Known about the structure:
The protein is mainly alpha-helical. The chain has helices spanning about 1-10, 15-25, 40-45, 55-90, 90-95, 100-115, 115-120, 130-135, 140-165, 175-205. The termini are far apart.
Amino acid sequence: xxxxxxxxxxxxxxxxxxxxxxxxxxxxxxxxxxxxxxxxxxxxxxxxxxxxxxxxxxxxxxxxxxxxxxxxxxxxxxxxxxxxxxxxxxxxxxxxxxxxxxxxxxxxxxxxxxxxxxxxxxxxxxxxxxxxxxxxxxxxxxxxxxxxxxxxxxxxxxxxxxxxxxxxxxxxxxxxxxxxxxxxxxxxxxxxxxxxxxxxxxxxxxxx
Length: 208
């Protein structure tokens, strides 16, 4: 209950520090949607009297996403597959909305698409938060992991910020999250299609 109160306090007091904290939570194994952080922050940044800058919102959101991703990466890297799956099957894992099936799904996605999945996975709903785990389990090179994670998280956060910023003069704030949720799901499907095309092209090029 205290954690819920803390998260709500951060949402009510959005600044660069709380954006970073919330995005760290969002990107780690604790489920928390980025759609409720970045768009509202960008929405407020669009106000001429706001202390927030939309470019800094994207920057600090991406920093937070990287920190959360690194938590998952290092946990998986050092504790190994048996402990990860034991956690996924534990009561605490289920409280975090993680189960064995979701971890298997993330691993299968990583195995299918290789290192590039760290980039593409950051853009796909239901995979975004967990893609760091198979990267750690496979002991992916840290510099490569950070590069793909930063690119994927940066693009996703920039899109969410652009949506929130553009809606400031169109949608009342109490309707913002519903509108963003609709747009983000549609964008997620587009990224899935683009990801499939990219991977298909790379496989074709590799075989050729």
